[in-house]
Amino acid sequence: MIRIDNLVKAFGPKRAVDGVSFAVERGEVLGFLGPNGAGKSTTMRMITGFLPPTSGRVSVGGHDVVESPLEAKRLIGYLPEAAPSYPDMTVEGFLDFAARMRGLAGAARKRAIARVVELCFLESVFAQSIDTLSKGYRHRTCLAQALIHDPEVLILDEPTDGLDPNQKHEVRGLIRELGRTKAIIFSTHILEEVDAACTRAMIIDRGRIVASGTPDELGRPLDEVFRRLTRPDTVKS
Amino acid sequence: MSAWRAIATIGRRELVSYFTSPVAYVFLVIFLLLTGFLTFTAGAFFERGEASLASFFAWHPWVYLVLVPAVGMRLWAEERRAGTLELLLTLPVSPWQAIVAKFLASWAFLAIALALTFPVIVTVNVLGDPDNGVILAGYVGSLLLAGAYLAITCLTSAMTRNQVIAFIVALVVCLFLLLAGFSPVTNLLTRWASPAVVDTVAAFSVVTHFDGFQRGVIDSRDVLFFLSVIGFALFATGIALRRR
């Protein structure tokens, strides 16, 4: 479903993503690990078409993201890192907007909204204005937006960030469940999430893939593998 | 989803967001009070002794100078600041659809504000026998003028995440477009420059092109001027948005 070929993103002289290639098929959940600034978010932004790649190709469901962006974007549900939403809208209004933008109308739109409200546990705040919500609810509102059109591809940038332990558990379960029928990439710094939700994990450091495989193939314990393969950002290159 | 449905959906969200915050009401009240004051007091509506809205429309380039950038400054700067730009541009819409949608929504808001000045039409028709065709032309010109200022504000708003910067830069650019044809400035210019140069500079001014509408003439060249300012500024907005 997702095919990435020698992807590069340079910001001035700095190569944030430096020759990354991988593929994710339907039924796979790829955990994207790496220290801060490793290039996880930049890679995800290129997959979703928000950032144009400096070189290399991204295709989603056979559509090149640069050449036919609309076809690719239709297949993708995206939760950006900061989980942004329009604070002046209610949860209901925001999800209605997202559903309309995905071309859902009438009864299908109502059903889609009801489905994601249930999946993301938003019933209690459905009519509330987003700027009155706590961080966890805002986060889940944005996640609900990503799921509204039941996309074949999910790109989730730190989907459990800012959630309490119960919510983290629920979201991991949700990702695992959705991963049976979809192609999912999610990024995290939390190593337990790899075991909890992923079929495959990839460690990325300074724009390059340094390890890839099932959690067992990467080695145990994971945090030692992670520390061995990546350099902390306090160390100068 | 068709391009127009996407534009309608984004535009509707944008227009509704004006009215769910106090911004719309503050703007409408200030706009109506200000135009009322300028028309009747500073514009000497009654002392003129003529049934026309000349004293009403003459102030519009100045009133819009402050109020239109205030309406448009948040359009893109706020999306950048809040990170919703990333959300919007990863939805299945092309950037130009989003640009047109947001512009049209704000323009519609300004049209609502302008429509709420209808009591002046009633007043002048009760007191005298004005040429309502001239008044209609004035409204068309005023709306186009607001659109030109608004498109420039879209551009400055797309260049920054700071609404204050977007506001000030838009105001300065619009002020240039205004002063280039403002008679005290053109009179000053004629002392040094040849009339051809002065005319060329004035041809870039919104005042020069707004004049005809105030006299009741809808000249296609003037319409074209405003539409090309809008088109150019929105095109440039697209380029500004590529920087993410």
Describe, in plain words, how this protein is organized in 3D:
The complex is a heterodimer of chains A (237) and B (244). With 237 residues, chain A is α/β, with parallel strands linked by helices. Chain A is built from 9 helices and 10 strands. In chain A, strand 9 and strand 10 form a beta hairpin. In chain A, helix 3 packs across helix 4 and helix 4 (106-119) packs across helix 5 (135-147). Chain A starts with a strand and ends in an 8-residue tail after the last helix. Chain B has 244 residues and is an all-alpha fold. Chain B contains 14 helices and no strands. Chain B has helices at 3-20, 23-42, 54-57, 60-72, 74-82, 84-89, 95-115, 118-127, 132-158, 163-179, 183-189, 195-203, 206-214, 220-241. In chain B, helix 1 crosses helix 7. The mean pLDDT of chain B is 91. The A-B interface holds A 45, 48-52, 69-70, 73-74, 76, 78, 80, 82, 84-89, 93, 97-98, 100-103, 142, 145 and B 1, 5-6, 9-10, 13, 16-17, 20-21, 82-84, 86-87, 89-94, 242, 244.
Strand order of the largest sheet of chain A: 6-7-8-3-9-10
Order of helices and strands of chain A: EEEHEEHEHHHEHEHEEHH
Chain pair with largest interface: A-B, 29 and 23 residues
Q: Strand fraction band of chain B?
A: under 5%
Q: Helical percent range of chain A?
A: 25-40%
Uncertain segments of chain B: none
Radius of gyration of chain B from CA coordinates: 19 Å
Number of helices of chain B: 14
- Residue windows where pLDDT falls under 50 for at least 5 positions of chain A: none
Find the CATH superfamily of the domain at 2-82 and 154-229 in chain A. P-loop containing nucleotide triphosphate hydrolases
Principal-axis shape of chain B equals globular
How much of the sequence lies in strands of chain A comes to 25-35%
Share of helix of chain B, binned: over 70%
SSE layout:
The complex is a heterodimer of chains A (237) and B (244).
Chain A: E1 2-11, E2 14-24, E3 29-33, H1 40-47, E4 55-60, E5 63-64, H2 69-75, E6 76-79, H3 91-101, H4 106-119, H5 135-147, E7 153-157, H6 165-178, E8 183-188, H7 192-197, E9 200-205, E10 208-213, H8 215-218, H9 222-229
Parallel strand pairs in A: 3-8, 3-9, 6-7, 7-8
Antiparallel strand pairs in A: 1-2, 1-4, 4-5, 9-10
Helix pairs in contact in A: 3-4, 3-5, 4-5
Chain B: H1 3-20, H2 23-42, H3 54-57, H4 60-72, H5 74-82, H6 84-89, H7 95-115, H8 118-127, H9 132-158, H10 163-179, H11 183-189, H12 195-203, H13 206-214, H14 220-241
Helix pairs in contact in B: 1-7, 2-4, 4-9, 4-10, 7-9, 7-14, 9-10, 9-13, 9-14, 13-14
